[in-house]
Sequence to fold (1121 residues):
Amino acid sequence: MLYREAGDFKSTYSSDNQTFPIRFDRYAYWAALGFAFLVVPFLLTDYWANSIVIPLLIYVIAALGLNLLIGYCGQLSLGTGAFMAVGAYATFKLTFAFPWMPIYIVFILAGLVTAVVGVLFGLPSLKIKGFYLAVATLAAQFFLIWLFTRVGWFFNDSATGMITMPQRSMFGVTVTGAAASAIAVYITCLIFVVGMSWLARNLTRGTLGRTWMSIRDMDIAAEIIGVNPLIAKLTAFAVSSFFVGVAGALLFGVYLGAAEAGEAFGINKSFLVLFMVIIGGLGSILGSFLGAAFLVVLPVLLKLMLVDTLGWPADLARHLEVMVIGALIVIVLILEPHGMAALWRTIKDKLRLWPFPH
Amino acid sequence: MSETVLFAFEAALNGLTVGIMYSLVALGFVLIFKASGIFNFAQGVMALFAALTLVGFQEGAVPFAPLINATFGTSVHNFGFNMPTLLAIPAAVAVMVGFAWLVERIVLKHLINQEPIILFMATIGLAYFLEGLGDIMWGAEVKRLDVGIPQGGNVWFEENTQWLGMGNENFWGFYIDTLNLYALVIAAILVTALVIFSQYTKQGRALRAVADDHQAALSVGISLRFIWVLTWSIAGIVALVAGIMWGSKSGVQFSLSLIALKALPVLILGGFTSIPGAIVGGLMIGIGEKLFDFFMQPIIGGATENWFAYMLALAFLLFRPQGLFGEKIIERV
Amino acid sequence: MKMMKLAAGIAASLSVAAPALAQDLHFPMLSYRTGAYAPGGIPFADGYQDYMTLLNERDGGIGGVPVRISECETAYNTERGVECYESIRDDNPLVIQPLSTGITYQLIPRATEDGIPIHSMGYGRTSAMNGDVFNWVFNYPANYWDGASVAVNYLTSENDGSLEGKKIVLLYHNSAYGREPIRTLESLSETMGFEFSAIAVDHPGQEQGSQWLQIRRERPDYVLMWGWGVMNAVAIQEAANIRFNMNNFIGIWWSGSENDVRPVGAGADGYTALTLHGTGTDYPLYDDLQQYVIDAGLAAGAGDQIGSVLYSRGMYAAMLAAEAARTAQEIHGVAEITPAMMRDGMEALSITQERLTELGLPNFSAAFDVSCENHGGGGQAMVQRWDAEADEWNLITDWISSDRELITSLATEDSAAYAAENNIEPQCAM
Fold:
């Protein structure tokens, strides 16, 4: 009843191949976009923006990147934190070297820098896979963080090693630094999210995406039928690192404003994004959104419920939160190993027939 | 002998002993991976939890004290007695066995036949859960762990190696930490015990059978679930030993769980499925780290320990992916 | 049904109430009772809370207005710090104590924009002592560069006035915090003639074998430590292992608490550390604390940290905040002050020994004044030594001053760069 598929016939190839073939989905998508761009800025309070929505948008981009690598191409990577750091430090150096450059361009350039670094650290994937590749990316994680703390050039030789984002504006509106309004930052992040997910969705629908998926499913067989594993794996690393780099640039540039490599981009960050991807669902664009939402909102929600409403001591609440997250990860993995996206797919399949059972 | 050679040798010696400490942690990983193909990321947190439990028993602390106090408004902290170490250690072992049983029942049973990455993620979730649980049960302050193992530079060893300097006044004999010597002995005993267990006992053979082929083991009547509980219990005991050794060095606190990250390169070098491999891998990583730091510190600065082990593992992976003693994986299309 | 209850619960907790009028003095407390640094964060938070509770119970608040503390758990994580800041920022917070250098760096631009003073006592951005540029940030009574200078001055006095030819090694945590003193120590080594080298310890510092082997080889005369968390205890243990003379091992005030020395046992005897304030329960204030807070069952946390170094530090921070609030009330003539008034109070703060004795904390703190240009207080610290047998810290010196001239010039240089980046006009023209 919700999904009126009867009578919806396609007459051109392009309409048959579109991302949202069902009309309801299309309208819902446009409505959601309109809501996000036109309605939410007026509803958003500063607290909601800065504590939930903006980090959510940033982590969505990171989760998208990691999902492309792990979910679509099957290469396990635990170096997400360090690649985000590359994006952040690249932003810092670029915007200091070229203060006149529009900040959106800086973010994209930072992403490209990260893509190059990602390809470099992805080279071992040509020889190793699975857990062993995770170890290689962990090497990247630890090495890059050490590099950013050690070599003064990266943080302009400041006494402490911390990098801070100067104030920059775009289209006449301040978007970085403390004077930036929450709405401006929100719109910036939203623009990037929409752009990047459009890019991700179309990459995965095209030849490149299918190449990746063939490598994921059976790489030896893929090689036999003529898929070039070198191109496939390295492009996966490149695109994934681009996404993660932009996420890191945004995290530092518009959200945190000041960062230190070891603390903000440590191994915990890598695990956090990995959790988002796993819980959201490997190999699914929507899964990245759901996973990021789950892991960003859950701690805040728990804190509000336990500390503010029940009045528990803050440390007890935090320990409980860690336990709940761990338990939820295990439960989600037991009940639905393919994540929340698979759950959504099941619901959608049922909805397409509802109220008819068959 | 020149100073540099002597100091390099000293660094290597210390690397050996530190490597043993890494191997202790890696042993637990190997055990679980052998029997069930799961890479147990929670091993580090298990070491922390085991050490916390031991200290808790030793001090007679009330488990879940903060939770009880928060809910009921009471102020209990200690039972009032101190359990002697000889009693506390078996008690901690019993707790780890109970934990293994619970994990098997609640987590592993439902995840049979899932992909390795799902199992890996489940152990990460387990690690988070256990960490929060440990903090709620025993509190998050730093605790002193004292099971009677002496610490400090070994004076006897220092004095007796002074002659190697041959009058060089900058050399004062080799330094070695007594605790690390004890760790060497304990690790040797542990590994011998494990090898004897797996080669000469019925359950050990069953363990090797399960590691080889789950289906075949099931078909000859080996209870997979019992073997898993057994494996996780042994891994828990190994975690307890690792927790005691590391906890004696630096106190029992959250950072103890980070030693798991050091075990990964050890496993790469030694092979995921080999117990002697874990030892050899640990030794190599330890020596490599210390020598690298010794030679490179003037050039690129210190604090390279975090990533050197991984770089070494990476280099190894490119030439011998299955590690020194691991089994070569043959993939069929 | 369960979903309904859950939804209702979520809805209830999400409806954050609009900020009410300030009927009390809101002192937010960003603490970390969990995470890797919990052993350091718990006593501080306890001390802060207990002092404020005492003010409420004994005096009815400050100037007659009750004090309200809201605790927000950051687990030393910068993103949570931002979340905590966002949640309290509309609630009329009088002063924010971020308790972490990383969070402080983040909050400086935000709090400056929102008009909320930050007090980063003995940590944070050192150049914030320059009130001309950092109008809303205070780091009295001393900062890291002061600490480095005080340590060097202490060592100079131990060596009959000259450190020529001596070897000093800095063992530091490889983070923003740990690298703070390097520049100061390098300039001091040039002027005072000692040999200086710095050895880094990677986070978390659980394994320091190579570093201490190096120290053993080099045999420096003194080792200074800028560590935090588990790095402290491991370093002290390793120092004891290589039989380094603990009297020559001096830590900054964040490396000198019971958590760092107790795990080492007898080996830590003689370990020396700087301190910004007195320690122990030997002050008249503790009688009041015992009566109004502890015996009344209102002690924070588990009540087992009372009198420890970090507990005293938390109490000190609370005491300074309360005194600044009092000063603000006097200046502006109202009891219910706003954050802007609090800033004025902090800028006009003057701690004297008479006032300290009145408060029941004689010689607990150095006497210092805050002014518009100098947000860093007096820059004095004491030196304390651990007695492992008696399980307590003993003060072995009185207040030692730092080379304030050098420090101020370094701070002006660093803050000028910040001012240029952010187009900040000098604020202290009057």
User: Anything to note?
Assistant: Chain B touches chain A through 48 residues (CB under 8 Å). The CA atoms of residues 244 and 270 of chain B lie 23 Å apart. Chain B has a mean pLDDT of 83. The radius of gyration of chain B is 21 Å.
